[in-house]
Amino acid sequence: MNMITPTRTLRIALVGNPNCGKTALFNLLTGSRQKVANYAGATVERKEGRFTTPQGHDIRVLDLPGAYSLVATSPDEAVTRDICAGTYRGEAAPDLLVCVADATNLRLHLRFVLEMRQLGRPMMLALNMIDAARRKGMEIDLPRLAAELGVPVVATVGIRRDGARDLLAQLDAPLPPPPVPLPDETDLHAVVRRILADCVTRAHPASSELEERLDRWVLHPVWGPLILTVLLFVMFQAVFAWAQPLMDGIDAGMGWIGEQVGHMLPEGALRSLLVNGVIAGAGSVVTFLPQILILFLWILVLEESGYLPRAAFLLDPVMSLAGLSGRSFIPLLSSFACAVPGIMATRTIQNPRDRLVTILIAPLMTCSARLPVYTLLIGAFVPHRAVWGFLNMQGLVLFGLYAVAILSALLVARIARRGGRGQEAALLMELPAYRLPNPRDLLLGLTERARIFLMRVGTTIVSLTVLLWALSSFPAPPAGATGPAIDWSLAGRIGHLMLPVFAPLGFNWQICVALIPGLAAREVAVGALATVYAIGDAGADTDQAAMLGQLLPAHWSVATALSLLAWYVYAPQCIATLAVIRRETASWRIVAITAGYLFALAYVMALLTYRLALLF
């Protein structure tokens, strides 16, 4: 046997079916000591972490993408297969494979464990959710199961603080020898049935009455869609209602910082750069962090609770109206948070045409980067009052924007699928057990999202707002010039050059200026507007970012605000999204088609919105 020495870093890989609790176990082991990237030469996400065992051994762990079989049908499964087999280019083979299986669903998960055994590499089995299996009356003979499989077997509970105690003890032991592969002609399904009969008993019938009762409501053809609609509706209401106190606190804090900086510096270019460029630009975007995190919290809770696969199954008939299947639902729902991971999640769709259509419509999902623009315009132009005594009108408008985007996406998908050959196979999905979301996993997910957002604010957004400040400040107006100084600047000239194209939409030249840096990231438009109006307003000082919502109604009509909202529902104002489409499809033609149809749709819908708003 190979012995683990304290000076050696052991490389292990967590591998298993989707919904086995593998990521929860990864979070339990690594905590905050983890990083996310992509595998070299692939778009598949790579999660790696480190931890130390009770006896001081350093462990490097990979959380491999979920797979149902080593006969890969998607890029995710191909990466998992190649890394486990030690054939992935640029990635050393793991010293130990830790197969994670859902103890409540061994019939499905053991088959994959047997496939892993055929690789002939050192491995062990972690029976996760063992507590849930016991609550269902299942008794699993772990020593006998280990003897049948020829590998060590430990019980784990990924959502408990000490749920990996037995796993850590096993990692402190010598590495197990590689298991002996089964003969090639072995019927793995028959082996699974025999192992279950020998190793698993039920002390009493499975106590799944609660899950069955919930599923009778959640998957009901009438009540199911109604429950989903209510959940989404409450989610969008919460984005406004829950976030407002936090937003007010951040806004006040950024205003105080700007005021202090303004008092410390003399009047001049440096003060203008810091106050009106950096603080007003970045601060106006940071203010919306609570709304973005609340949106992510809802999506994480729906995912962790086991509801998302049920929603996908429930919406399969609705998606079929657009020529897609329920498999497209989860990538599209992920796109509400950010289109980039949503587009990457389409790798689970096996039908190439369905995958392409899902990629094409993913940018139409209202991502979190649009929230700052929506919130600014809705807060400035939609009254903050109750409807029917308990609904927030601003939340209703936000829900309407999301609904319009979804309906538009389904219509575009239907048109794109018209005349297509071959349909996605009938939807077969594993419905995981309901479970309470683990607060640790939710906190890690939200922390990672906040870190990414703040890094984006500190790099891309600040850089663009500083660039816009420079364009808005130079050249200075000549002596004796009248009117705002920004009219003489490069930004003013660019805005006036664009104005003939966008004037039919009701846009002024300030909006045209804000659209340019907004191409890099949608939320930059808010900081750009704050910068433009702060520069353009004589005597503007530290409160411009906070005052932007009050300034806009004096400069814009309601029709202009509605037109800009319509523009942002459709326009592809995100270079990162276009870049990931290029990476996933390996086609600049698809990128051009996506950008072209989205810009055309944005222009037409903004024009219609503006004209209809003027009529009414």
UniProtKB/TrEMBL annotation:
<dbReference type="GO" id="GO:0005525">
    <property type="term" value="F:GTP binding"/>
</dbReference>
<dbReference type="GO" id="GO:0005886">
    <property type="term" value="C:plasma membrane"/>
</dbReference>
<dbReference type="Pfam" id="PF07664">
    <property type="entry name" value="FeoB_C"/>
</dbReference>
<feature type="transmembrane region" description="Helical">
    <location>
        <begin position="273"/>
        <end position="301"/>
    </location>
</feature>
<dbReference type="Pfam" id="PF02421">
    <property type="entry name" value="FeoB_N"/>
</dbReference>
<dbReference type="InterPro" id="IPR011640">
    <property type="entry name" value="Fe2_transport_prot_B_C"/>
</dbReference>
<feature type="domain" description="FeoB-type G">
    <location>
        <begin position="9"/>
        <end position="177"/>
    </location>
</feature>
<keyword id="KW-1133">Transmembrane helix</keyword>
<feature type="transmembrane region" description="Helical">
    <location>
        <begin position="453"/>
        <end position="471"/>
    </location>
</feature>
<dbReference type="InterPro" id="IPR027417">
    <property type="entry name" value="P-loop_NTPase"/>
</dbReference>
<dbReference type="InterPro" id="IPR006073">
    <property type="entry name" value="GTP-bd"/>
</dbReference>
<feature type="transmembrane region" description="Helical">
    <location>
        <begin position="356"/>
        <end position="381"/>
    </location>
</feature>
<feature type="transmembrane region" description="Helical">
    <location>
        <begin position="588"/>
        <end position="610"/>
    </location>
</feature>
<feature type="transmembrane region" description="Helical">
    <location>
        <begin position="222"/>
        <end position="243"/>
    </location>
</feature>
<dbReference type="InterPro" id="IPR030389">
    <property type="entry name" value="G_FEOB_dom"/>
</dbReference>
<protein>
    <recommendedName>
        <fullName>Ferrous iron transport protein B</fullName>
    </recommendedName>
</protein>
<feature type="transmembrane region" description="Helical">
    <location>
        <begin position="556"/>
        <end position="581"/>
    </location>
</feature>
<dbReference type="Pfam" id="PF07670">
    <property type="entry name" value="Gate"/>
</dbReference>
<dbReference type="InterPro" id="IPR050860">
    <property type="entry name" value="FeoB_GTPase"/>
</dbReference>
<dbReference type="InterPro" id="IPR011642">
    <property type="entry name" value="Gate_dom"/>
</dbReference>
<keyword id="KW-0812">Transmembrane</keyword>
<dbReference type="GO" id="GO:0015093">
    <property type="term" value="F:ferrous iron transmembrane transporter activity"/>
</dbReference>
<feature type="transmembrane region" description="Helical">
    <location>
        <begin position="393"/>
        <end position="413"/>
    </location>
</feature>
<keyword id="KW-0472">Membrane</keyword>
